Fold this sequence. Notes:
This protein has seven helices and nine strands. By secondary structure, the protein is of the alpha/beta class. The protein has helices spanning 15-22, 45-63, 65-68, 96-106, 157-165, 193-197, 201-210; strands at residues 3-4, 7-10, 27-30, 74-85, 88-90, 110-122, 142-152, 186-190, 213-214. It has a single domain (3-214), classed as Maf protein. The protein is elongated, with a radius of gyration of 19 Å.
Amino acid sequence: xxxxxxxxxxxxxxxxxxxxxxxxxxxxxxxxxxxxxxxxxxxxxxxxxxxxxxxxxxxxxxxxxxxxxxxxxxxxxxxxxxxxxxxxxxxxxxxxxxxxxxxxxxxxxxxxxxxxxxxxxxxxxxxxxxxxxxxxxxxxxxxxxxxxxxxxxxxxxxxxxxxxxxxxxxxxxxxxxxxxxxxxxxxxxxxxxxxxxxxxxxxxxxxxxxxxxxxx
Length: 216
């Protein structure tokens, strides 16, 4: 039995994730998660991304537990992206100076971008008397991660300064967004473009299919 998902509840304020999910042709609403991203010293970037994605989802589910009941085949989704430079996680820069330091470290070399996502289907109840063979199993949280290599051109101090002046780096992990002005700084990628942008659409859709869910 394949169940159609009618809407997505995105537990993230990222406009990029919102637009990516809307591109799938399904209704998307943003909900708050109230999650405090506190990093644990010594954690690998890939562990940080997964922990934050699950944490955001669990926090959102707890915060909106009362309003989620009765949702018409929805999915609650959270995600987190980290930039991995030799095992060190680059998150969002706190100011221009930190953005300059991050971009200087990325200049002329390769790094890895990890995007983790976690979701929970909130399915409409099925009447066991009218549909005894269509009672779905109790949904569980699904969490996955995708990784992509990114290579930067060698950047001059002026290139970095000009990019930081656009203010684009300040709300992005690693101080850059591949879909924006930073496209001129990136020499190439090895992997999934959407993972770098903030949400691996292909991996997500395959996960849904494996669970007997579809957006179409």
